[in-house]
Amino acid sequence: MTITATTGAAAANETPVPGVPGPEQDPFIWLEEARSPEALDWVAKENERTLAAFEADPRYAQLKAEALAIFDSNDRIPFVSFRPDGLYNFWQDKANPKGVLRRTTLESYRTDSPEWEVVLDIDALAKAEGKEWVYQGSSCLPPARTKCLIALSDGGEDATILREFDTSTRQFVEGGFVLDSKSQGGASWIDEDTLLVSRSFGEDTLTESEYPFTSRVWKRGTAIEDAEEIFRGDPTDVSAGASLLRDNTGTIHARTAYRGISFHERLFYVWKDGEWLKMDIPTKAAPYGIVDGHLLFSTDVDWTVDGQTFPADSLIAVDLEEWKANPNGAKKTLVWAPGERQTKQGGSITGNALFVTLLDNVVGKVLQFNFENGAWVSKQVPLPDNATLSIAASSDETDQIMYTVSGFLEPTTLYYSDGTDAPAVLKTSPAYFDPEGMEVEQHEATSKDGTKIPYFIVKPKDMTLDGSTATLLTGYGGFQVPRLPGYLGSTGKLWVEKGGAYVLANMRGGGEFGPMWHQTAIRENKQRTWDDFIAVGEDLVKRGFTSPQHLGIQGGSQGGLLVGTFFTQRPDLLNAAIVQIPLFDMLRYHLIGRGASWIGEYGDPRIPEQRAWIEGYSPYQKIVEGVDYPAPFLWASTADDRTHPAHARKGAAKLKALGQPYYYFEDTTGGHSGGVDNEQRAKLQALQFIYLMQRLMDAPEPLSGE
């Protein structure tokens, strides 16, 4: 029987609102058809013009070769995941451009040249089936994890198909589970003959954000159309679905479900006594995992319950058995709360402990948590100071865990611990550029409202502060995602080693200082993010690090919107702007790709009050006649089904119509992250750095894009 959750949110305003452009106001709406003949013809002509300008540069071939050598390097660290039958790695190189899923043993992995067994060859599969398959991961049945659902996308889209695969035989299962209609969402194993599927089952099961909102239990040997629906959200949700609450042994303790009522807010449910019971937790809180017989929750807002208040960003525990008996009445206990300028990042649960990575004033730490003698205790894992730390892999069955340690100039190092000894170096990435003569500094800019905005600059030592250094400024500033110091790799080789400076800004809207750093710069306050980025640019000029003639900016997705707002609001401060796979037309973003899912971050253009917030900065509408823009380079991917190439296309088309210089390039595959193989990635890198060199290093005066 289907149990439908009660709808708790009002339906979105679907009435057309004056000011939201339609075809009569926007002459370039036809570019929103991703693969129409007219749009693809326009793309081909734009690509031809841009490639002619950049590939003819005598430095292009060298830059592409340098980038490709890094991406194809056989001595880069092969990062792995733990499974009972070995350590698994997905690997792409010159011989395997689409990649191979392979495994080895820990003993072999410790050596300089591990012996790998190929489990699945994506290149061979793509060739045999005539598809541009891109491997998008797998979901495997615990505890053995040999029965898996392999996710594949055609050309790099987010949408995938799913096929059952047996890692012990290294074969797709004949007559096994197959979902061959591409969709967002996934499937979880209930047992070896049963799946919990949360995917598209037709147009009436997708939200306006184009994500699934129903879930079914599918039995082996039956048709998916006949599978029992067990949960249904609402079409106005961002997404919705059911899942399984498992511990590290694979034991299922409950069925849960959620409704994403906005990108940042969810309602959670648990199956209790034959019905879905709504969990009494904040909409910005969520289950975090099971550790030492306790269910943990994380919250992004202050949570007051039972006479106590848990601060935002806390970890909170309830006894698992008590919670199963009384989900909304179980006693809650504080596990961890952040200190000043602290925030938790990732977490991982091993056989006997919880490990959490923290940022402490944008410096990494890792804490280990255990429940001992009736109380939660923690200790800091001994890893290098003043570095960016992350958990690379952890075992569900044992306490084996791996960490990465890196910095802008320090190649990534992989540490390993079996749970009894302190982490020790297991592998180190080779140096891909020469850091000699380079240094890293951290500074603060003052934003428009007085807030101090930190940023890092990687620059030549003792550089003359006369504004002559070509400088690339980048950032993100959205969705509570932090941008942290990390080894520069190809950027170090193609830019910093050649005399450029690199700047990473930590704007509000990101996650560098916890939930409030994000929440203070969303929706009606989103302009604060753009102000922060501009303030960093101004500070770089004020300190003499660079000048408008030599300053360029770069960002992708939300970061592409960040770049778009900068170059339309302060074109006088720049001479280059790389707008990658961007959001750009913010008055129609809810209608393009999966834009409606991000209304929680930006607001809804259909609502007049909220449209007014967005009109103040939407880059597409801010491109106007009579302003000289810094010949931006916009690029996108035809296969991007997330932000959609229409944003970048329309930005370029409007610049062209106004006679403004610009460049445009569109990768015909690659999805939201750009190139799907190393050759494509190297090409994109070379195109961008040639553009930056031409704009910021070569000419004493701003260049024309024509």
Automatic annotation (TrEMBL):
- Stretch list, region Disordered: 1-25
Ranges of compositional bias, category Low complexity = 1-15
Report if keyword Protease is assigned. Answer: yes
What keywords are annotated for this sequence in UniProt?
Hydrolase, Protease, Serine protease
Know the name of this protein?
A: Prolyl oligopeptidase family serine peptidase
Task: List residues of the Peptidase S9 prolyl oligopeptidase catalytic domain.
Answer: 493-692
| InterPro entries for this protein | AB_hydrolase_fold, Pept_S9A_N, Peptidase_S9_cat, Peptidase_S9A, Prolyl_oligopep/macrocyclase
Entry's PANTHER family? PROLYL ENDOPEPTIDASE (PTHR42881:SF13)
Peptidase S9A N-terminal domain location? 25-420
